[in-house]
Design goal:
With 191 residues, the chain is mainly α. 72% of the residues lie in helices and 0% in strands. The relative contact order is 0.14.
Length: 191
């Protein structure tokens, strides 16, 4: 199961990246998030290739693909467009603050929800044991990674993270967090 191995190593890279963000072990470790993402994308691509002949035989397959694309768009938006880009990905600051508005008012790790949606849809579309095992494994690894960030790395890298934890749920949105998300979405309530 090459693809499962690639996914596991990819998440191992994510964990090491976060460990380095806390302890500043080595400069080259700053590229491990990119390496982990490449491994995960490669494994996903391999599974799509291996299962290409069995896909799109039924209208349900098209619905799974549409759902997967929808969740992928939400994931890309959440990780790269919902956050202030410079402060998140360019500026290095020991006392940076977690972004707590918009989609990040919904829950502390909204990307985990969208990632799970992507792999739920992909796993259903692949219709193979290997694809199902991979999808379940990476979703569980992503939840474990979010828990690691929530308990270990984010409280040490974001000065306001403990306060954020008091006001915003971990993964499952609630009525209050949905309302805060709507109220603080970019441009919402602004004249």
């Amino acid at each position: 199961m090459l693809v499962l191995g690639l996914g596991i190593v990819g998440f191992f890279c994510y964990f090491l990246y976060d460990e380095n963000s806390v302890k500043k072990i080595a400069g080259w470790m700053g590229s491990l998030f990119l390496v982990g993402s490449i491994l995960l994308v490669a494994a996903t691509g391999i599974l799509f290739w291996k299962n290409r002949e069995g896909m799109f035989r039924t209208p349900v397959d098209k619905a799974w693909m549409a759902g997967g694309v929808f969740f992928l768009c939400l994931l890309v938006y959440t990780l790269f467009f919902a956050l202030p880009f410079e402060a998140t990905y360019v500026e290095e600051s020991k006392y940076r603050e977690a972004y707590t508005e918009g989609i990040y008012a919904l829950c502390r790790h909204p990307g985990v929800l969208w990632f799970g949606g992507v792999y739920l849809c992909a796993g259903a579309l692949w219709e193979s044991l290997e694809g199902t095992v991979f999808a379940v494994a990476v979703v569980l690894l992503n939840i474990l990674y979010a828990a690691f960030q929530d308990v270990y790395s984010f409280p040490r890298t974001f000065s306001n993270y403990e306060e954020y934890k008091k006001t915003t749920p971990f993964l499952i949105p609630n009525r209050g967090s949905i309302r805060r998300c709507q109220e603080t979405w970019r441009g919402a309530g602004r004249k």
